[in-house]
């Protein structure tokens, strides 16, 4: 007759040490992933909500070899003054003109055409950005 075992073989059933370690790593990775997504969300919200002055370049027109015009739509709070930086680019992508334009009007939306002097013929006008303050 064969001998009957009463106890289960050691380590054969249940979780092994590797499975417990994998579970801990999965939990740690999930917590870090959620924290990273929350941080990215916070940075995005802070960037959008923190801008006091924003603008959009509606269209631009090259008037001559030494001048370009840009149609800007600026959005800001009524009591905030700010300025926007525009630059004119040549055909090869080099900068041929740069200017800052102030917007002090007590309005929350300003639609204005501005003129930019250039050192050579420009082919494009680019809005670099806007900031609040002087």
Overall description:
- Helix content is 25%, strand content 43%.
- The strands form two sheets. The protein has a three-stranded antiparallel beta sheet, with no helix packed on it. Strands 4-3-6 form a three-stranded antiparallel beta sheet, with no helix packed on it.
- The longest helix has 33 residues, at 17-49.
- 14% of the residues are buried.
- The protein has 134 residues and is an alpha+beta fold.
- Strand 3 (82-89) and strand 4 form a beta hairpin.
- The chain starts with 16 loop residues before the first helix and ends with a strand.
- It is elongated and about 105 Å long.
Index terms:
alpha+beta
Brief overview:
It is built from 1 helix and 6 strands, in the order αββββββ.
What's the helix and strand layout?
Blueprint: H1 17-49, E1 53-64, E2 67-76, E3 82-89, E4 95-103, E5 109-117, E6 124-132
Antiparallel strand pairs: 1-2, 2-5, 3-4, 3-6
Strand content: 35-45%
Shape category: elongated
Radius of gyration: 31 Å
Summing up helix and strand content along with how strands pair, one would put the structural category as alpha+beta
Order of helices and strands: HEEEEEE
Give the terminus-to-terminus CA distance: 99 Å
Beta strand count: 6
- Count of separate DSSP helical elements: 1
Spatial sequence of strands, sheet with the most strands: 1-2-5
Unreliable runs: none
